[in-house]
Amino acid sequence: MGPFVRSAGVRAGAAGLVACTALTACTSAPTAPTAPTSDPAPRPARAPASSEPPSATAAPPGRTCTEPLVLTRPHARGPFRLTARQARARASEAVPASRVDARARVAVVEGMHPMRRPHAYPLRTDTPCPEESVRPVTLTVVGDVMLARGVATASGGDLSRPLAATAPRLRRADLAVGNLESTLSRAGAPTQGGDSFGADPSAADALVDAGFDVVGLANNHTGDFGPAALVRTVARARAAGLRTFGAGRDLAAARRPAVVEAGGTTYGFVGFNAIGETPAAAPGRPGAVQVGMPPRTGPLDRAGLDRFLRDVRRLARRVDVVVVLPHWGEQYVHRPWPVQRQVARDLVAAGADLVVGGHPHQVQGTSTVGGALVVHSLGNFVFDMDFAGPTMEGAVLETTWWGGELKAAELVPYRMDASFTPRWLRWPEARRVLAPAAPFSGPAFRF
C-alpha cells in the first residue's frame, strides 16, 4: 500500500483491474471517502459536497460503476509517470482513487492524471455508483506577483513577457489565483519610497491573458500610492475580468469574498494583511483587511482575528471550498513563525479548506491540518528581488478537487531568469527549491 492511503474501502489488486478503452464504458464514480486525520482540527458544519469524480448524469440505481485504480508514492520522490504496461505490472500495489488524498503523489499513466481525468484513466476497479457526481476542478495558486519596477523595465513595456513561460500551464487550470503585490495605478504620492510598487494598468490584462481568474489584494503594497490608487486598482482589475478580494473602497468592500463557480463547485476566496503599511480598511476609508500578528504588527490581535474567522464561517456556509490567502510571517526565511501555525489551525477550524500565505518571498513549509492543506508561503512568482537565490525561485501549487474534497496537490517549482520570467525546473533541480522548507513541513511534504 502506498503512502497516505486510507485503509477503509474497496480492496485493490490485479483481479480488480479494468482496461478502459472507451470513455463511455467506464464511468468514474468512487464511494465517498473519510477525511484524513493527520492533524485533527474541528470543522464547521456545512452541506455535504459530493466527492465523486465526474459524470454527466448519475447512474441508475443498481448499476455498478468504476473508478481509477492508482499507484502512489511520497511527494519527495518527484514526478511519477508510467506506461499502462508498467502500471499493470504493479497492480498489486494499486488502490482505488477514493482512498487517496492530497498527501500522496499519484502515478500519471499514459499522460493521464487519475484525479484530473478519472473517466479517461486506463486502470479501473468496480465501485458502487453514487447518487450524483461532479467534475474534477484544478485550482492553481501562485505566490507574490509584482509587475512593476525592475520587472516592468525588463519586460520592455510588454507585461505579458514575464508571464509567457508559465502561461500555458496556468491556462489549463480551471481557476488560477495569486497575490497581486502592487497597485495598478500611480494616482498619488508613493508611500514607501523606492519600495512603492505601482504597475502599469495593462498588468491586469497581462494577468488575464496568462490564465489568472482571481487576485488577492490583502497585502502591504496595495496602498503604496494612497487611497485613490487603491480604489482604481480594484476597479482596473475587475474591468479586465479579474475577481478581487482583500481590499476595497471601504471595510465592507474589502471583506467581501470573491466567489467563483467551476465544474459545479463553488469556491470562495478571502484574505488578510498582517504586515501593515497598507492602511486597514474601515467604514468610509479604503484599505485592506488587516489582522495584527507578529513579527510586523505587534502581538496577535485576537479580536481582529475573531472578526476574520466569523467571515470565514459565513463563507463556509455559502460555498463548497474556502480558500484563504493571509499575508504574514517574516521575510527571507523558510521557517514559519509559530503564530502562523496557530492562526492556520484557527482558519481551518472556522472552515478553510486551503490556506496559502504570502510575503516571506521564499518557500515555507507545507502541511495538512485535518482535511485542509496549509502552505505558509510559495515564494515570489514574479518579482525583481535578484539579490539572493531563494527570492528568485518558488513553487506553484496545483490542487485538484472532487466537489468539496481535496484529492491531489502538487508543488511545481520554478526559477526566474535574468528578466524575472519564472521557468519550470526539472527534477532533481526542482527538489532543491523545496528542500529548505522540508524541516518545517508535514511528513507528506518533506522533500
UniProtKB/TrEMBL annotation:
SUPFAM superfamilies noted in UniProt: Metallo-dependent phosphatases (SSF56300)
Keyword Signal part of the UniProt annotation: yes
Ranges of biased composition (kind: Low complexity): 29-38, 46-61
CDD domains assigned: MPP_CapA (cd07381)
Keywords: Signal
Source organism: Nocardioides iriomotensis
Record-given protein name: Capsule synthesis protein CapA domain-containing protein
Family: Belongs to the CapA family.
Cleavable signal peptide: 1-31
Disordered: region residues: 29-66
Domain Capsule synthesis protein CapA residue range list: 138-385
Keyword Ubl conjugation: no
Pfam families reported for this sequence: PGA_cap (PF09587)
